[in-house]
Amino acid sequence: MGISVIIPAYNEAESLPELSAWIARVMQERGYAYEVLFVDDGSTDGTWSTLQALAAEDPHVHALRFRRNYGKSAALYCGFARARGEVVFTMDADLQDSPEEIPEMYRMIREEGYDLVSGWKQHRKDNALTKNLPSKLYNATARCITGIKLHDMNCGLKAYRAEVVKSIEVYGEMHRYIPYLAKNAGFTIIGEKPVQHAKRKYGKSKFGMNRFVNGFLDLQTLWFLTKFGGNPMHFFGVTGLLMFLVGFVMTVWIIVEKLVQQAHGLKFRAVTEQPLFYLALVAVVLGVILFLAGFIGEMVARSNSDRNRYNIAEEL
How far apart are CA 29 and CA 67, in angstroms? Predict the structure, then answer.
């Protein structure tokens, strides 16, 4: 099998026949061996009946249906597990991603040696205030934190070597950061290609402004797990130790200062009357708590069944 195309769909019944026919035309013009896997993410319209009809008409079309809406990450995870192609594509079901981009992205994977090629919606057809500006800010933040120089990390149109999608686990809402997941799994040859972006033809967008807030929080979570997931003491222990030392030094300073003033017959304030003393106590207590959190985190990490799970590239 040459190409697998995975398409999550949620209430996109109107666009599916046109999208399926468009993909088939592109594939057949170039003689590709391919499969198209639609994942119905708990749709409440006629999406599943439409997919049943498409699968009955075209042997290249396959579909699976969730009992409820789990989200795009879950759809991609199940699609990746079932993909049989040497090169795997993902695209959205709303006709905003063009299947005409598939041949060039396929060539970049097979001939130029990329592990992953991400689409770049260079000229977006979305609302500038609600989509374009937040997207630019989001991508700038993602580039800074991940070190991956992609203009549009969350573009739905991507191409992967099969080894990439079989080596990563997409969960929660981490579909936004698949390039970062791939990089952390050792697939570092990541490129991008400017792609066509069309206005939505049917229905309305399923994503609101809250996705940018959630996306930023997910990015922080992923960064933390990548850096300290296997060694939580390196973060909590060091931070806790520093806070404890700061609080301890402040406490000693206050007490010594009071004793010196008392020994010289100078006017002094009781230690418990100084606000700085209580700040020092808070720092000491927080330091101890953070250190214990790191210790507990280490115990959890050591009991994790995946602690020695590594991706082996080759073996002779």
Answer: 36
For residue 55, the model assigns a pLDDT of 94
Range of the domain at 245: 233-302
Tokens of 221: 């979570």
**Does residue 309 belong to any structural domain of this protein?**
no
Q: Residue 18 belongs to a domain with what CATH number?
A: 3.90.550.10
> Alpha-carbon distance 70 to 42, whole Å?
7
pTM score, two decimals? 0.75
**Domain stop point among 162, 193, 228:** 228
Closest of 173, 170, 153 to residue 218, by C-alpha: 173
Q: Is residue 90 part of a domain?
A: yes
- In the chain, the number of structural domains is 2
Would you say 301 and 232 are in contact if contact means Cβ atoms under 8 Å apart? Answer: yes
3 state SS for 13-25: CCCHHHHHHHHHH
Q: Give me the residues of the chain with pLDDT under 70, please.
A: 1, 125-132, 203-212, 304-316
> Which of these three, 228, 251, 282, is where a domain ends?
228
158-161/116-120 β-pairing:
antiparallel
Q: How far apart are CA 114 and CA 133, in angstroms?
A: 29
In 51-172, DSSP assigns E strands to 61-65, 87-90, 116-120, 158-161
